[in-house]
Amino acid sequence: QLHLVESGGGLAQPGGSLRLSCAGSGSLWDTHSIGWFRQAPGKEREGVACISHDGMASNYAPSVAGRFAVSRDNAKRTVFLQMNSLKPEDTAVYYCAASNFYMSNILHRPFDFAYWGQGTQITVSS
C-alpha cells in the first residue's frame, strides 16, 4: 500500500512560484514512480510531470516544460514539484499519484497510477 498527501497549494500571482510536496507512506514508496496531474474545472485531467522511482528520469507535459521541475528525496519519502513562471492557466487542483511503471508516455496513462493523493488547489491570479 501507498498513502500520498499533497501540500503547498495556494494562491500565486502570474509570474510567481510555488512548490508542492507529495509525502508518501507505505512499503511501496521505493519502487514507484510519482506523477503530478492537474484538473481544472470543466477540463480533462492532465499529466504534468513524472519522476522515476530512483529519481534518475523525469518527463514533463509541453505546457509546463522549462517552468516546472520535479524532484524526489527518497530518504524523506517526498516528491516536490517546483512551479515557476506561473500562468493563470496553471490554475487547477493538483494531484500526486504513484505507479509501479515508468515510461516516456506515462503522463498519458493515468490508469497506470494505482495510488492517488487527495489533491491541493493552485490558483494563479492577480
Structure description:
There is one protein chain. The protein has strands at 3-7, 10-12, 18-25, 33-39, 46-51, 58-60, 68-73, 78-83, 92-99, 115-116, 120-124. The protein has 126 residues and is an all-beta fold. Strands 2, 4, 5, 6, 9, 10 and 11 form a 7-stranded mixed beta sheet that branches. Strands 1-3-8-7 form a 4-stranded antiparallel beta sheet, with no helix packed on it. Strand 4 (33-39) and strand 5 form a beta hairpin. The radius of gyration is 13 Å and the shape is globular. The termini are far apart. The relative contact order is 0.31. The mean pLDDT is 96.
Determine the N-to-C terminus distance. Answer: 40 Å
- Classify the beta-strand content into a percent band: over 45%
Integer average pLDDT: 96
Gyration radius, to the nearest Å?
Answer: 13 Å
**Count of beta strands:** 11
Which oligomerization state do the chains in this entry correspond to? Answer: single chain
User: What's the helix count?
Assistant: 0
Which structural class do you get from the secondary structure elements? mainly beta
- Unreliable stretches (pLDDT < 50, length at least 5) are none
Helix content: under 10%
How do the helices and strands follow one another from N- to C-terminus? EEEEEEEEEEE
Largest sheet, in brief, is: 7 strands, mixed
